[in-house]
Amino acid sequence: MKKSWIIELIRSDAKTLNILQRIWLSVFPGSRNAAQDQSDHRKIFRGLLLHFRPRTVPESTLKLSHAWGLGVMAVVLVFLLLITGLLLKFTYSPFPDRAYDSIVYLNNQIPFGQLLRNIHRWSANGLLLVVFLHFLRVFYTGAFVAPRQFNWIIGLALFTAVIFSNFTGYLLPWDQISYWAITISTSMLDYIPGVGSVLKEWILGGAEPGQATLMNFYAIHTAILPTLLLFFLSFHFWRIRKADGLTIPRSPEEDLSVPGEMAETMPHLITREVALALIVLATIVLIAMFFDAPLADKANPGLSPNPTKAPWYFMGIQEMLMHFHPIYALLVIPVLLVFGLLSIPYINYDVSTVGIWFCSHKGRKMALVAMVFSTIATIAAVLFDEFVTTTVSVGPPNVISNGLLPFAIVLLICTGFYWLVKRSFTANKNEAIQALFTLLMTAFVILTLIGTWFRGAGMQLVWGSW
Ligand code: HEM
To answer: How many whole angstroms from 145 Cα to the centroid of ligand 1?
Structure first.
């Protein structure tokens, strides 16, 4: 109806138009052929879309049970963070004497200010969780072997950028929680011999968090890391495209040589992605409506809270520090872990299991065994260290009794476990590596949970500190 009205107006040579209609026409000149226009617009939209996406994708990759939409969820959260972060910049003031008040002002005086902050905070936490799950799904579907090896490395760079975006953002409210969490996290660096203290001073811009720290963290959080994140994201997607899309999901019995059906990207993939994006948005807004982002009292450098804890994603390391000598907790183990993660795509992995969740039915069972064993062993080790070894103070220096010795025991357990599951399940290399990976990941998650929820005043073990 409206279109024919406009066409009538155009045809009437604008003589019969009133002022409002002429203004309308000056903004939207209309067309003599609306149907043709619509089809042209569709073509342009599809053309634009096909710059980023292939025209068709294997139908099987659309199955939710393959990628669980985790990568897409992460993308949605990254953009939600960029938008809400940009809006937060309008009121936030990165100076120790004003930062806290600017957050209080945002919460209490700006319409929807608290909601905006909540969305930003919960999206940031959600992103960490979603990226971790995406990382696990990529590992357990063997999606890191050629031609996706380097995308695993880019993924790790993205993961690092996400962690440090969270970490630098944590300080910005300048309240007691954030101030002391950053203090405790950076003071862990002091334990690294040689470079530790220099590194700490370099990060903080001084001996303790202050004006320089806040300015540095603000610049890194709002300019450097978002730029890096966008750069690595573009690289990540380009590599997915170069690898001809996602790994093809299949069950252990399925034959990969039979080519599967293809589906048009538009509408089949795009509608699924838009639906997922809306679900993520709705979930975050709902959470943000009911749960406020924490804000304690204004930072007081003279009064540390008890317990003083690092942000939850570093609690695994803080918990490790309670059981290992700092050289092992902060240097040897993290360096080995990072090296291990970087070398995963370059180990001689059998590519015939790519796309199969957990390699095989046996691989699934082994991963489950590794998870249960690791949960029990980690909890037992923490309790043992807490209630038995601390009361015994015998001879050798701390770096041996508390460092080399427990580290050697852990190494022995890992090696023993690898050979034991490999032999008792008559497993192949893929399945055994996967079991070892599960063992280590589970241990790290359990340590994080213990540190976050089961440590109370004086970092003593308590039954639930939530
Ligand atoms: C901000 C962080 C990240 C974002 C936004 C992101 C996004 C995505 C998206 C959208 C996909 C395709 C669809 C899907 O798998 O859901 C994907 C695939 C992939 N990602 Fe990520 N990713 C991130 C982090 C990571 C990490 C931490 C790793 C691993 C270390 C990783 C490795 C990969 C690989 C290898 C693929 C190809 C998977 C396949 O072919 O099946 N990504 N990513």
So the answer is: 13
b/e sequence 359-377, b meaning 16+ C-beta within 10 Å? bbeebbbbbebbbebbbeb
Q: Does the pLDDT at position 229 exceed 60?
A: yes
Q: Tokens standing for 221?
A: 């959080």
**CA end-to-end span of the chain:** 60
Confidence of residue 53 (pLDDT cuts 50, 70, 90): confident
- Which of 150, 236, 272 to probe ligand 1 with, by most ligand atoms within 8 A of CB? 236
Using the mean position of ligand 1's atoms as its centre, give its distance from the Cα of residue 141 in Å.
12
DSSP state for residue 60 in the 8-state scheme? G
3-state class (DSSP) for residue 205: coil
From 57, 72, 130, 134, mutation site for ligand 1 pocket: most ligand atoms within 8 A of C-beta: 134
**How confident is the model at residue 399, as a pLDDT?**
77
- Per DSSP, 347 falls in state S
Task: Specify the DSSP element, H or E, that contains 275.
Answer: helix 270-290
CA of 134 to the centre of ligand 1 (A): 6
**What tens digit of pLDDT does each residue of 122-163 get?**
999 999 999 999 999 999 999 999 899 999 999 999 999 999
Average pLDDT over the chain, rounded to an integer:
90
Q: How many residues does the chain have?
A: 466
Nearest CA to ligand 1 atom 24: 155
If you ran DSSP here, which 8-state letter would residue 89 be given? T
Pairing of strands 56-58, 262-264: antiparallel
Domains of the chain: 4-52 (no CATH), 57-305 (1.20.810.10), 316-466 (no CATH)
Confidence band for 314, pLDDT divided at 50, 70 and 90: very high
In whole angstroms, give the CA distance from residue 193 to residue 197. 8
pLDDT score of 439 more than 90: yes
Ligand 1 surroundings by CB, under 6 angstroms: 67, 69-72, 74-75, 78, 131, 134-135, 138, 141, 143-144, 148, 151-152, 155-156, 158-159, 162, 233, 236, 240, 246-247
Contact between 67 and 137 under an 8 Å Cβ cutoff? The reply is yes
